[in-house]
Amino acid sequence: MPTPHATHNALPESAAAAPVGTPPTPRHVPLAEQTRDGLVESVHYGSLIAVGPDGETLLQAGEPDAAFYPRSALKPLQAVAMIRAGLKLPENLLALTAASHSGAAMHLDGAARILDMHGLDKSALENSTDLPYGIAEREEWLRSGGKPTQLAQNCSGKHASMAATCVINGWPVQGYLDPEHPLQVLVKDTITELTGEDAIAVSTDGCGTPLFAHSLHGIARAYGRLAAADNTDAEGQVAHAMRAYPEMVAGEGRDVTAIMRTVPGLLAKDGFEGLQLVGLRNGTGVAIKISDGGDRARMPVTVSVLEELGLDAGQLAALASAPVLGGGHPVGVLRAADFLASN
After folding, report:
1. Which residues in the chain come in under a pLDDT of 70?
2. What's 151's DSSP letter?
């Protein structure tokens, strides 16, 4: 089983210069604004970058080299590590491995199937418990008397595959979330390789998985690599599965599923705290961070960036945002700000 190695970039200047114990505040800029009858009512700050297939910066705003936690946007990269370690799954279940799923029956059944295929059951899961993430799925779950479970939690596909990868390699299943576990060491090395950066900081994600901080620049580079990879490579297998089964990556009514259905060849994954990652078939990668963690600003900014990169504006218009209502009627809009003018 190969362990990847990479030439690593230095820490971003803002991170290196900060006093010990005092995290620097990134120099974010306005990325989105909500209007109401002609007045700007709210502003969302953040940073973003788009990098080309050769690593060149195509556009940027704010401070894309600052350290941040990619949260669930790391899942496709974690899936690459598992494939390299021998994980083989049908494409729909591989897409679920990279998912922050809504908790529909197809998602829960899929996670249970991954476990069963490898002689495991839900007792092998070490993720946190939760209700289904999707609004409709959560309401139905609660109406039927459902309680928080590990299988319903939106990362259960990833965790089922992590446990399965341990079985394949003869690693201990119990304790697979330990940062020193062979699986997590491989995951960290794979993320380092794909981003071209050493982790700037290490923490724990909400589901319990080790979480590595990188720059937007690095994570955008990784998504460009995934999106352009050949289907014979681990990176390409993950990207192809996500494109083929976007409903497994998120769920019905979710914007990530919608944008992959709308734009052929586009790879997309969101993450908690206002993260959006996109990869295009030509190797372009896009990374967006909304500084206040607000979810609603992700898609208007994403659409604006993709339009700047030359994608069809008409094709993307319906995804940009819902209207702002007053008395049940449109009176404003949540829209991307002129973030390129901020640089």
Report:
1. 1-22, 342-343
2. T
How many Cβ atoms sit within 10 Å of the Cβ of residue 329? 7
Greatest Cα pair distance in the chain? 62
Coil/strand/helix, residue 229: coil
Q: Is the CB of residue 191 less than 8 Å from the CB of residue 179?
A: no
Distance, CA of 200 to CA of 16 (rounded, Å) = 10
Q: What is the pLDDT of residues 46-79, one digit of tens each?
A: 999 999 999 899 999 999 999 999 999 999 999 9
Query: What whole-number distance in Å separates Cα of residue 90 and Cα of residue 104?
Result: 18
What angle (nearest 5°) sits at the alpha carbon of residue 341, between those of residues 335 and 343? 120
DSSP structure string for 58-120: EEEES-TTSEE--GGGGHHHHHHHHHHTT----HHHHHHHT------HHHHHHHHHHHHHTT-
User: Using an 8 Å Cβ cutoff, are 118 and 137 in contact?
Assistant: no
302-to-77, 198, 218, 287 alpha-carbon distances in Å: 20, 26, 18, 9
The Cα 287–Cα 275 span in angstroms is 8
Q: How far apart are CA 175 and CA 162, in angstroms?
A: 11
pTM to 2 decimal places: 0.90
Joined together, the tokens standing for residue 12 give: 């971003």
Distance CA 100, CA 251 (A): 9
CA proximity to 250, closest of 109, 77, 101: 101
The 8 Å CB, 24+ separation contacts for 3-6 are 3/186, 3/189, 4/84, 4/189, 4/190, 4/192, 4/193, 5/189, 5/193, 6/192, 6/193, 6/196
Cβ pair 209, 177 in contact under 8 A = yes
Q: How far is CA 293 from CA 16, 52, 159, 272, in A?
A: 24, 26, 24, 7
